[in-house]
Write a structure and sequence with these properties.
Length: 245
């Protein structure tokens, strides 16, 4: 983990309130599923904002984020050449080296971006990867998965693309050796329920409001079978066994 000043190489809007930000990378090793705290404003404005890693290249780092408040709204206005402060990589990532065979990745909404780097690493490790992407209406960021996944399944709650309904409607965990999921908690708990019924191991990337990103403030705690856990420090990726009833 390092705190460093990066420079914006590009920023573009790819969907309603969704932006693709590319910045310079330092030499830190990044695990799929980790995140950074970002800040590009003075101390009078909001705290740093947590954003998951979307894509990692040799000298560049990519984020996809959605405007949800003042911090991300301000971030979206920055142009090429602007400086942005980064703290990370933070948290733990998906256990890509612990799974084998066929793996399903299940993402919903802005939980989709961290699954791309995850798919890249799983494929590199020899796994066969299918990705299940759930959207409320507008599609975004599904095309890159075509290069690293065997199959792409899309579900839209309101729209004409793909399956009409929830992405969990078309997930069949029994066809996989493991499942990774990231997105709205209600979606992930349904994924866990389906996996538990088929005795398929599942890992969840828990989303929560964060203030510090390093486990000091306890804002992002979540309840597990082992007590309260910090999403930023103990997670964001947790084994589904921690949430078994």
């Amino acid at each position: 983990m390092q705190f460093y000043t990066s420079k914006i190489l590009s920023q573009k809007q790819i969907a309603t309130d969704v932006f693709h930000l590319t910045v310079t990378k330092n030499d830190e090793k990044i695990a799929p599923g980790q995140f950074y705290m970002l800040k590009a404003w003075n101390d009078a404005l909001p705290l740093m904002r947590p954003i998951s890693v979307y894509n990692v290249e040799n000298e560049t780092l990519h984020f996809l984020y959605k405007i949800v408040g003042k911090g991300t709204e301000w971030l979206s206005t920055l142009k090429k050449g602007a400086e942005v402060e980064l703290l990370g990589p933070l948290g733990n990532g998906f256990p890509c080296r612990e799974v084998f065979g066929k793996v399903a990745l299940v993402g919903g909404g802005i939980g989709i971006p961290p699954l791309f780097e995850t798919a890249k690493q799983l494929t590199k490790n020899g796994c066969k990867v299918d990705v299940f992407l759930g959207y409320k209406d507008e599609l975004f960021a599904f095309e890159p998965f075509e290069e690293v996944c065997e199959n792409i399944f899309i579900a839209v709650e309101k729209g004409n693309e793909g399956y009409k309904g929830f992405i969990t409607d078309i997930l069949h965990p029994q066809n996989y050796n493991a499942v990774f999921t990231c997105g709205p908690e209600i979606m992930m708990m349904k994924v866990k329920e389906l996996c538990d019924a088929q005795k398929v191991p599942v890992w969840l990337s828990m989303e929560s409001r964060m203030a510090c990103g390093i486990g000091a403030c306890l804002v992002c705690t979540c309840k597990t079978n082992e007590g309260m856990k910090r999403c930023c420090k103990d997670g964001p990726v947790f084994s589904g066994t921690l949430f078994s009833e």
